[in-house]
From TrEMBL:
PANTHER family in the cross-refs: SAF DOMAIN PROTEIN, STRU PROTEIN
SAF domain span: 342-407
Coiled coil: none
Name by which UniProt lists this protein: Oxidoreductase
Species for this entry: Streptomyces sporangiiformans
Alphabetical list of InterPro entries matching this protein: DRL_cat (IPR048423), NAD(P)-bd_dom_sf (IPR036291), SAF (IPR013974)
C-alpha cells in the first residue's frame, strides 16, 4: 500500500500533518526524527527525554529551530498549531498534547509500559520502538487498545515486524510456515557487560547497555519472542538453536529432523548467525506437485521447503511506515495475538543474596526465550521485570531466575500490568479485570477498507 499520497491528502483535508510525539531522543529516536522530517504530511511535533536539552538538540540536529519548552500545556498545544516543535523532559505531558500518535523509543520496559498505558487511557495511539515492553506486557496493552478503539503496535524496521510480513506473505500463498527468524551477526556471549563493552560502544556511538543487550543475546531473544507472540508460532527450543548458516542453506537447516533439518517440530521461530544477518527469513513448505514444479521452474529450489528472505531491516528509517499504517488504516504492524514465548531472566554471574538486579543490558542478568507455558509452570521471572528485583538467595551463574530466587519490585507500572496480563492469560476478561468503564475513543472518520484518516484529538 502506498501511504504517501494518503498522508498528503490527509494533510490537505485537515490542514496539518500527522503529529507524532516521541519519547526518547537516543539513537533510534533521532533517526526517527530525521526520517520523519523527510516525509510530507508527517512530523515529529514533540519530543520528551529525561536528559536536559536532549530533546531540543534532536530537533536542532534536523534543522528545526524555535523549539518550545514549557510545562504549560495550553502554550504547548498553541505551539503545535503554529507548527513549532515542542521539547520536554516529562513524558507525562505528551499525553495531554494534540498529537495523533506517541512513539516510545526509550528501550526501558518500565518507561514503555507507563507511556503506553497513559497514552492509551488518554486516547492516543501507541507505537513502540521498545520491544522490551512488548514481550513483557504487550498482550494486555494490545487488548486494552482494542477495547478503547485505539492502535497499539510495534514499529516497522525492527526484525520481528519485517519477519512477520514474510510470514503473512507465505500464509497468504497457502504455504505452511516451518520456521521464521532472523540472522545475527555474532555468536552470543551471555557474560557480556557494559563495562567490558564500553570502548566498543563508544566507538559505535552506542549506549553501552544497548550494545550489551545485543552481544549477550537478550535482544535476539526479545525480538524472536515478539515474533512468536504476534504470529502464534512456537519456540523451537529453550534459547533456540542459533546455528551458523547461509541464505542458500536456510531451507535445508530449518526443517524438521525427520527431513534432515534441526527442528523437533515445524511452526516455530529461531535465529541463526552468519551472513544471513542483518536480514530476516521464513522457511515454508508446500508439497503440491504442481506448485513444486512451478517453484522449481521459478528458481526457488526443488522443494518442498522454500526460503523467503529479506536481506535488511532499517530500524528507525522504516518506523514512519507504522505511524502511517496506524493513523490511516487503524491497524497495527505487529502486536501480540497470543502468548507462546516468554523471555526469562538468567544469571550472568554468581548472584549473592541481598543484591539488586540491574535489568536488560546490565551486568547481572541476560534473557533466554522459553515456552511461555514452561516459564509460567516453573515460576520463571520475565526479563522485563528483573530491574530492581532483590536477590533472595545465592544463585549460580547460568541459572534461570524464579520467583523463589528474587523479589520482584511490585510498585511499578510494568509489574502491575504484568499481574493483570497473567490474570488475562488465566481466562479472565479485560472487563472483569478493569471493572471501571474505559473511555472508548473512535476517530471522527470511520475506518474504511482501503484507508481512513484519524481526526486530530480535540476537534
Amino acid at each position: 500500500m502506498a501511504y504517501l499520497p494518503q498522508i498528503i491528502e490527509r494533510q490537505r483535508q485537515l490542514g496539518r500533518p500527522i503529529r507524532v510525539g516521541l519519547v526518547g531522543a537516543g539513537q533510534m529516536g533521532i533517526g526517527l526524527v530525521a526520517q520523519t522530517n523527510r516525509i510530507p504530511g508527517m512530523e515529529v511535533a514533540a519530543i520528551a527525554d529525561i536528559a536536559p536539552g536532549r530533546a531540543d538538540a534532536a530537533f536542532r540536529r534536523t534543522g528545526r529551530e524555535n523549539v518550545v519548552s514549557t510545562p504549560d500545556v495550553d502554550k504547548l498545544n498553541a505551539a503545535l498549531v503554529e507548527g513549532r516543535p515542542v521539547a520536554l523532559e516529562d513524558a507525562g505531558l505528551l499525553v495531554r498534547l494534540d498529537l495523533d500518535i506517541i512513539v516510545e523509543a526509550s528501550g526501558v520496559p518500565e518507561v514503555g509500559a507507563a507511556v503506553a498505558l497513559n497514552g492509551l487511557l488518554s486516547g492516543k495511539d501507541i507505537a513502540l520502538l521498545n520491544v522490551e515492553t512488548d514481550v513483557t506486557v504487550g498482550l494486555l496493552l494490545s487488548a486494552l487498545a482494542r477495547r478503547m478503539g485505539r492502535v497499539y503496535t510495534v514499529c516497522r524496521g525492527d526484525e520481528p515486524v519485517e519477519c512477520k510480513r514474510l510470514v503473512d506473505y507465505a500464509l497468504d500463498l497457502g504455504l505452511t510456515v516451518t520456521c521464521a527468524g532472523k540472522g545475527k551477526n555474532n555468536p552470543l556471549d551471555p557474560t557480556a557487560t557494559p563495562d567490558g563493552l564500553a570502548a566498543q560502544a563508544a566507538a559505535k556511538h552506542m549506549n553501552p547497555k544497548m550494545l550489551t543487550s545485543f552481544v549477550d543475546g537478550s535482544k535476539t531473544m526479545i525480538e524472536m519472542a515478539a515474533l512468536a507472540n504476534a504470529t502464534g508460532l512456537g519456540v523451537s527450543r529453550r534459547g533456540f538453536h542459533g546455528p551458523r548458516t547461509t541464505v542458500p542453506e536456510l531451507a535445508e537447516v530449518f526443517r524438521p529432523k525427520a527431513d534432515g533439518g534441526i527442528l523437533d517440530a515445524a511452526g516455530v521461530v529461531d535465529y541463526c548467525t552468519g551472513p544471513v544477518a542483518p536480514g530476516v527469513f521464513v522457511v515454508a513448505k508446500c508439497d503440491d506437485p504442481v506448485v513444486v514444479a512451478e517453484m522449481d521452474y521459478l528458481s526457488m529450489g526443488s522443494g518442498p521447503y522454500y526460503t523467503f528472505y529479506r536481506p535488511y531491516h532499517l530500524a528507525s528509517v522504516e518506523a514512519p511506515l507504522t505511524i502511517a499504517e496506524a493513523v490511516l488504516t487503524r491497524r497495527p504492524s505487529l502486536a501480540p495475538t497470543t502468548w507462546t514465548a516468554e523471555v526469562v531472566a538468567c544469571a550472568k554471574r554468581d548472584l549473592r543474596a541481598g543484591e539488586l538486579l540491574d535489568g536488560i543490558g546490565g551486568s547481572s542478568v541476560y534473557g533466554v526465550t522459553d515456552h511461555a507455558a514452561t516459564a509460567a509452570a516453573e515460576g520463571m521471572v520475565p526479563l522485563g521485570l528483573a530491574a530492581g528485583a532483590r536477590v533472595l538467595r545465592d544463585i549460580p551463574a547460568g541459572s534461570s531466575l524464579t520467583t523463589r530466587d528474587v523479589d520482584i519490585k511490585q510498585d511499578t507500572v510494568i509489574a502491575a500490568l504484568r499481574r493483570l496480563q497473567d490474570l488475562l492469560l488465566a481466562g479472565n476478561t479485560l472487563d472483569a479485570l478493569l471493572p471501571l468503564p474505559l473511555p472508548t475513543t473512535t476517530p471522527d472518520t470511520a475506518p474504511a477498507p482501503q484507508s481512513a484518516f484519524a481526526a486530530p484529538l480535540g476537534t
